[in-house]
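Hello,

Following up on my earlier ticket. Below are the two sequence lines again, exactly as submitted.
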Amino acid sequence: MPDQMTILAPEGMLGYGIPARSMEEGLKRQPDALAVDAGSTDPGPYYLGAGVPFTNRRAFTRDLATILEPANARRIPVLIGSAGGGGGRPHLEYTLEVYREICRERGYHFRTAVIGAEVDKAWLKRQIARGRVSALDIATELTEAEVDRSARIVAQMGVEPFLRALDLGAEVVIAGRACDAAVMAAPAMRAGFDRALAYHMGKILECGGAAAYPRHGSDSLLGVIERDAFIVEPPNPDKICTVASVAAHSLYERSDPYRLALPGGAVDLTHTRFEQHTPRAVRVGGTRWVPAPAYTLKLEGAARVGFRTLTLAGVRDPLLIAQLDAYLDNVRTRVAETYPPDGYRLLFHVYGRDGVMGPLEPVREIRSHEIGLVIEVIADDPDSSAAILALARSVALHVTYPGRKAIAGNLAFPFSPSDLKAGDAYEFNVHHLVTVDDPLELFPIEMVEA
Amino acid sequence: MRRTIGEIAKFVTSKNAGPFLLTLDVVFPDEATYRRFKALGALDRATVARLYGIKEDDVLKIIEFDPAYAMKVTLRRPWGSGAVGEHDVYGAQQHVPLMQHTVPWQEA
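Thanks for your patience. The regenerated structure is below:
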């Protein structure tokens, strides 16, 4: 076992941009692996459900090429987790397509492992029947009907499939949905470093430069793991890691900063010590691993709910703003006279009132001189959605209200055409845990040529 | 006198913690300010529930995190992120009621 190992996370999200200087400085530290997270549920259910990436292809290609260049020149292993964003089959295929394009153009050859993470519905139904599926953060148990309703279900892999891929001789690992911490932790754990420290370091590295100040823009982060601690440091000379910046990162996007649940156990930060190691680096130790009684994987699924069409408009007239609710109720009623309201959803987003917070908004009265209105229709098919939205838009533009002076029209439209097709709408409908006997069971590993 | 949490803290933020939870972080500028704020006992589940007009049961956790001089409040989201009727897919603009909440505070 080496005394230390260095992992470079070039950025917090593949496709968000790698500053050239950070990559250059990071590579001077002779990293033993380049590891990057490529996915998240943050952008919402659409990307998982529709099977499309949420990063821009040109940016994604540029970043992947930036990572593969030193990987090729110096033979540094590369690990990519949650490929393509959602980490499902089409997301993996998309990533592989871009990857092969880069390799072909530049004449790169890597032994490449591709790890699937999409969950077979029949298998999942059997696990429901066996009582091996439980709800996470929500009260609803998973049913067979919900499984059928899902467009796609993925499971977040732990570190084990990455370890197996590296054992198989992979130089590049392209993995479907994965625990972000596992991507960075795998090389360290394979070299024999402590599981809790490796996962904890991975959890900080997965966001790239986010754990360094000043916190702006996508950037890189270096992690150096030792036997009883790890050190994080930004390669960007304009940034520093402080105890505050690294400790505060433990809060980010997590419900509990002391406990990070992972397949097979949890990282426990109760006794973690953060120390300023150098003016730019923080040393972290004391983190513990608490094994769980069962090995569980997090499942994520998204279901299609219909086709979304919307229009954007502004209202400036104070006579209308003063009676906005009655006006919108009237629009809804008139639309329902043509389209009975059981087959679609008609929604009004009122910016200037509660467009940002909805039911959580404590301010109920309108204090603005103008309001922004988004009229949204979700119906089964694109034609119905467009037809209902067209009627709602037209009624909203022309319907009268008590005391109206502006009889030519109620709304200001910024665009022509006014009605926009937003595409299929999805919702997260699976957010559960499944118990498995084998950490590799759901994650087929295929070695491919590139 | 009274001060808002936003005036006392260095950061007040909100963000999803997975698609079904919303987490609010209040990070204080130094240990002394953090300890003074903690001693007030000003952030409890009833207060947070009132600020956001939700049930106390939907305020899942309020955690003091000493290493970052921070307090974390985790709420159940009204619905899963991005579901029909969503207002804030990332949950990044739900911090204001907490930021504007006032507590008794004398300048040190």
